[in-house]
Design goal:
6-stranded mixed sheet, 5-stranded antiparallel sheet, 45% strand
């Protein structure tokens, strides 16, 4: 018997089959559950599957696992048959580790044996040739180590519980009442203060070896910590070459935090910390080698204290870190932080908290070069508190100066709009700004897009255009926002001031010489501050005034767009978060706040004496601008988004809903006029304009009250060409971002180009175009209506009886006559749709604790109804589908609830409603379109 077999069979002979169970009851293994490996114990094994009791973050449980989702820790192997080169001697064992020449295995009795690899069977030698040598490898972290782990790009303190297969189970603290436990890859685990993982340290001769961790280094020496907890300092020159190479890339510990000759941040500094894509205000509590401990206000999550990397910290308002500032001669230097710069000087904050202004030419050459590369930015004004501002009350209160005024949906009421008569003053609204019918283009930053566009007018035909970076990387890139001045008369533009990347241009008033800029944050770019600047039209620099926090409505996510109008010499009407308020900007106080509004997208009348807002569900209110008092209300039918406007002469209020258009006479006693919606599609922020002469504009849609429907469209070829191949030849790189009516003229702003070069396009044209009107005259209004009361329609002969009955009821309700020869067909269907496989994340509340994922495949039951004309859809509706979220209670199971969407139903046809009037598909977007192209406006009839 060979020496190998004597070692293997030193206890008792083993007579085993080649095919043996890879795991056995009692084995300490790891199992894979939802992409995470958890420690467990095998309870039983049969037919390729094992019952394992394991511990996860949800507690201890037993589950069945396939052999592919089981492994032994530390890269050890499953049970297998080991045999010598002759194949005559065999033993059941598990692989433990190997060197270059030997392999260690563990037998069934628990004893380990180390045998020469050369004496093993060729198949086993071939397998071991692919197995890395493990003798010189030590676990980089071990149980009990105090480490930091990275979760969602944040580092949290924790304790290692176990390590195997390049992953560690760590119990860590994220600031909750109880710690969390998770499995982390090695790259997401680190020791504090720049210390290193466990590894083998050896001298140049390789005779001296020890397991230890890097602690610190100087220019010549390195300090390591051994497994017994003691520290050893040794010369770097005496170490093995591979270690010397590694240490050459390791910063000297005493200088690890130094940038530009100074520790970049200091305790008690007011700083901003980034969590995901949002920057929060905080204060430095402790400076560490790898970053700093920051206490910050996380909004609704309260105050938190966490460790942040230097890359996730910044000073607000573009200010710089601490550094040494040296003069050009080098004979003087000060410690300070960059605060701001202009064309000639830089402002520096000194250690005594005072600011000094230094001529850039007096600084050292490196500093002058740095400042030349630093753009001149409009400095964010200091934060002040407005008198009378704060959370808007959800409970109605008596109207008074400086307090909130309740909206009409909570008890307040006013006269019906049909009985309201207002006196009009002189026009002062921007709606009447005179601009020439012309256009111009100018270059902008490649990643920028057009934001707010404000008409100014004057002899130069000025327009203020704000641009900003909209790419996802804008939160990391230092892409500044920019204000431009464009002159339609001179066909030229000039760059105005630059603002910080998180700022967005809102509005401008030449009368007040004031610009308003909003600061945004978070994934949804939610506005949270307003900053005010003094500036004349055409100027390149802005003088900062003050910054205020935006009053936030209680329980609001603040995701509404900011709506602001500068009024007179020193006031601003501001809409946001379900409220409209009037501010006195000189006195820095809120005069009043109208709260509890359905929408804060208010509309000013031409004389600024009144504004309109959706005061409640299905209710529009007209308010006095000076006092916020409700002057009158109008009721609407239906539900959903609404948009409103005053006519360009200020005499009417128009409101468009999803189902009807309402028009109130505000200077007489005429009753409210209702118009059919005629296919107009509106949202709460769709710009609406009453041009007079029976014309309304809603976004790109031109509505004719005479026709009672969309008559024309003003759109880009990219949007208008959907379903129109004949328009694709007009498609260019123009993307429209702004359409606004100024009286009977349309102001359009767009961007053109891509990453290599981009331009902003601004133009003004009359609406409706003369050519468009002539084309509309050629169409008989009645010829565009496919179905009206008395029209003939075919009921789909293939429809099942229960569906056909519902179709006939709907046709009869609309006064349509059934005719099997009609080209218009009312059809319906109900049946299984396409099978969908969706993964749901389960989140527990109350008795349902923890979270996980479940994947389910469901074939939903889909019901559809449509009106078809010559294979073209003229109208359609549908119900059914797999829900994207499901609320579970009690003992309900997700799978059972999802399968309910597969149940057969014909409920859609029990009370089917179809519009009484349906336009031919060809005319549903109007009788034609004016394409807004880079070469001008092109009129095309449908």
């Amino acid at each position: 018997m060979t020496l190998l077999m004597m070692m293997l069979l030193s206890s008792s002979p083993v007579h085993a089959q080649e095919d043996i169970d890879p795991v056995r009851a009692g084995d300490q293994i790891e199992v894979l559950s939802f992409s995470t490996w958890y420690p467990g114990v095998v309870e039983s094994y049969a037919a390729g599957k094992a019952m394992v009791k394991y511990t996860s973050s949800f507690g201890e449980k037993s589950s069945e696992f396939d052999v592919t989702k089981m492994r032994f820790p530390n890269n050890e192997g499953h049970w297998t048959v080991w045999k010598d080169a002759t194949g005559k001697f065999r033993v059941e064992a598990r692989y433990i580790s190997r060197t270059k020449t030997d392999v260690t295995i563990r037998k069934a009795d628990g004893n380990e044996a180390t045998v020469p690899i050369a004496g093993l069977h060729p198949t086993i030698r071939a397998l071991l040739a692919k197995t890395p040598v493990t003798a010189d490898i030590v676990a980089p972290v071990r149980a009990g180590d105090q480490v930091e782990v990275q979760s969602w790009k944040k580092w949290y303190p924790g304790t290692v519980k176990s390590f195997s297969n390049d992953k560690a189970t760590v119990e860590y603290n994220v600031g909750r009442s109880s710690p969390s436990t998770g499995s982390f890859k090695l790259e997401d685990i680190r020791f504090a203060n720049g210390e290193g993982h466990w590894q083998i340290w050896k001298d140049a001769s390789e005779k001296f070896q020890v397991e230890a961790r890097f602690i610190s280094r100087t220019e010549t020496d390195v300090t390591i910590r051994k497994t017994d907890g003691s520290d050893v300092t040794m010369p770097i020159a005496s170490l093995h070459g591979s270690l010397r190479t590694l240490l050459a890339k390791t910063p000297i510990t005493s200088e690890l935090n130094k940038i530009d000759g100074a520790v970049p941040i200091r305790v008690d500094d007011q700083i901003q910390a980034r969590v995901s894509s949002t920057w929060y205000d905080g204060v430095v509590k402790e400076v560490r080698v790898v970053g700093a401990l920051i206490e910050y206000d996380a909004g609704t999550w309260g105050k938190k204290t966490e460790l942040f990397e230097l890359d996730d910290l910044r000073y607000p308002n573009g200010e710089g870190h601490w550094r040494l500032w040296a003069s050009a001669t080098g004979d003087s230097q000060i410690m300070g932080r960059f605060m701001a710069r202009d064309e000639t000087h830089v402002t520096i904050l000194k250690e005594d908290k005072t600011e000094i202004r230094v001529a850039i030419e007096q600084l050292s050459t490196p500093l002058k070069k740095l400042l030349r590369e630093t753009p001149v930015i409009a400095r964010r004004p200091p934060l002040v508190e407005l008198a009378g501002a704060g959370l808007i009350s959800e409970t109605p209160s008596r109207p008074s100066i400086g307090t909130s005024i309740p909206g009409t949906n909570r008890g307040a009421s006013g006269p019906d709009l049909s009985t309201l008569t207002i006196a009009l003053g002189p026009r002062v609204s921007q709606q009447t700004v005179a601009l020439p019918q012309s256009g111009t283009a100018f270059s902008i930053e490649p990643k920028h897009t057009v934001g707010s566009v404000i008409p100014i007018g004057g002899s130069e035909g000025w327009i203020a255009v704000g641009t900003h970076d909209t790419s996802w990387s804008s939160r990391d890139a230092k892409m500044l926002s920019q204000l431009y001045w464009a002159s339609l008369t001179q066909k030229k533009s000039s760059a105005g001031p630059k603002f910080y990347p998180d700022q967005r241009f809102v509005t401008y008033s030449p009368q007040q010489r004031r610009a308003v800029v909003a600061s945004v944050r978070g994934t949804w770019s939610e506005p949270h501050q307003l900053s005010f600047y003094r500036i004349d039209a055409g100027q390149a620099t802005a003088v900062p005034e003050f910054t205020v926090n935006i009053p936030k409505k209680k329980n609001s996510f603040n995701r509404d767009p900011v709506r602001a109008e500068l009024i007179g010499d020193h006031q601003m009407l501001f809409g946001y978060g379900g409220m409209v308020s009037l501010w006195d900007l000189d006195e820095r106080r809120v005069i009043y706040q109208v709260g509890d509004l359905q929408s804060s997208n208010f509309q000013l009348n031409t004389d600024h004496q009144h504004f309109a807002a959706m005061s409640g569900t299905n209710t529009v209110g007209v308010y006095e601008t000076a006092t916020g008092q409700l002057s009158g209300q109008g009721s609407l039918e239906g539900s959903g988004d609404t948009t409103a406007c005053f006519s360009h002469d200020g005499k009417r209020l128009v409101v468009a809903t999803r189902s009807e258009i309402y028009r109130w006479d505000l200077i007489g006693t005429n009753p409210v006029q209702t118009l059919p919606i005629g296919g107009v599609q509106v949202k709460r922020d769709t710009p609406l304009a009453d041009l007079g002469g029976g014309w309304l504009v809603a976004g790109p849609q031109l509505y004719s009250s005479g026709l009672g429907l969309i008559a024309w469209a003003y759109d880009s070829a990219r949007n208008a060409s959907f379903g129109r191949p004949d328009l694709r030849k007009y498609i260019d790189d123009v993307n429209i971002h702004h359409q606004q009516m100024l009286g009977t003229k349309m102001l359009v702003a767009a961007t053109m180009g891509g990453s290599k070069g981009k331009s902003a396009l601004v133009g003004v044209a009359g609406v409706p175009h003369r050519d468009a009107v002539e084309m509309m005259k050629q169409v008989d209004p009645e010829s565009i209506r496919m179905l009206v009361r008395g029209s003939r329609i075919k009921i789909d002969p293939q429809a099942p009886p229960q569906i056909a009955a519902g179709l006939r009821r709907a046709a009869k309700a609309n006064g349509w006559i059934e005719d099997s020869t009609s080209e218009a067909t009312l059809t319906g269907s109900a049946g299984p749709g396409e099978t969908q496989t969706l993964t749901y994340r389960t989140i527990g509340f109350g008795t349902r604790s923890g979270s996980g994922e479940e994947t389910h495949s469901v074939t939903p039951w889909i019901q559809k109804a449509s009106v078809v004309y010559q294979d073209q859809s003229a109208w359609s509706t549908a119900v059914g589908g797999v829900p994207y979220s499901v609320h579970l209670s009690g003992d309900e199971q997700l799978g059972n609830e999802l399968q309910k969407s597969s149940n057969a139903s014909y409920a859609l046809f029990d009370n089917l409603r179809v519009p009484e009037e349906i336009i031919y598909p060809k005319y549903q977007r109007g009788l034609g379109v004016t394409l807004l192209t880079i070469k001008g406006f092109v009129d095309i009839a449908n």
